[in-house]
Amino acid sequence: MPNVCGGNSACVPKTCAAGQCGTIGDGCGHTLNCGSCTVAGQTCGGGGTPSVCGAPAVCVPKSCAQLGANCGPVGDGCGGLTANCGTCSGLDICGGAGLPSVCGSVIPDGGTACTNLCPHQVMCPNMPSGTTITGTVYAPTQADAGYGNPDPIPGALVYVPNGTVTPFANNGVTCDQCTDGVSGSPLISATSATDGTFTLNNAPCGVDVPVVIQLGKWRRQITVPSPACCTNTALTQEQTRLP
């Protein structure tokens, strides 16, 4: 038996089988060189089996039907987008039932119709969180002005508005909760962690996306230029510091 110590019988070394490549053990305590791959496009182990010639697997884009989508563009699973999966008829709109890239009329549980940025939320194969936007909320300290490095800010609300963000109703000192005064019909939101980090899941993509950072009556709104679908867009410190 190769590679197993035994009695006095002579070990019969293995030979290279068809398609084998590289250096392998001969089963008798020695090595055997099976050479390189001769077929164009193949590499040793390229097909996923060690020491066997093969070509790398080619990603096959998924269709709209395979993804369960019937409207708008959808990530195809290979880093691109499908062709437009169709348009909705009647009163239905893309994403209207709360499912990205699926025609529907009204979001359940008394929600509002999927309009503005909502139809730009797309399903992403193998990415349950969909398109994401990440960053860290910082204090407005300016290091170059001699005030030290800015500290990360926990507990800040970060959201994508689906409507118009309006000015605070009362500019004076009030006893409000940190989330009071939120406007713009947030489409998605997150709260910064103890280290100031946040992740916005299922973000709209392919169009300019506004992002609001708010803590009490400190609020800043920026625009993220057309984030790529089914990827993460990391915001810079300059983008995510409070005003």
Task: Offer a concise description of the structure.
By secondary structure, this protein is mainly beta. The strands form five sheets. A four-stranded antiparallel sheet has the order 9-8-11-12, with no helix packed on it. A three-stranded mixed sheet has the order 10-7-13, with no helix packed on it.
SSE map:
Blueprint: E1 23-25, E2 31-33, E3 43-44, E4 53-54, H1 64-67, E5 93-94, E6 103-104, E7 132-136, E8 157-161, E9 186-191, E10 197-200, E11 209-215, E12 218-224, E13 232-234, H2 237-240
Parallel strand pairs: 7-13
Antiparallel strand pairs: 1-2, 3-4, 5-6, 7-10, 8-9, 8-11, 11-12
Fraction of residues in β-strands: 15-25%
Task: Give the integer mean of the pLDDT values.
Answer: 82
What structural class do the secondary elements suggest?
Answer: mainly beta
End-to-end distance: 74 Å
Uncertain spans: none
Oligomeric state of the chains in view: single chain
Secondary structure tally: strands: 13
Helical amount: under 10%
Give the helices and strands as they follow along the chain: EEEEHEEEEEEEEEH
Biggest sheet: strand arrangement: 9-8-11-12
Largest sheet composition: 4 strands, antiparallel
The rough form would be described as: flat
Number of helices: 2
Give the radius of gyration: 28 Å
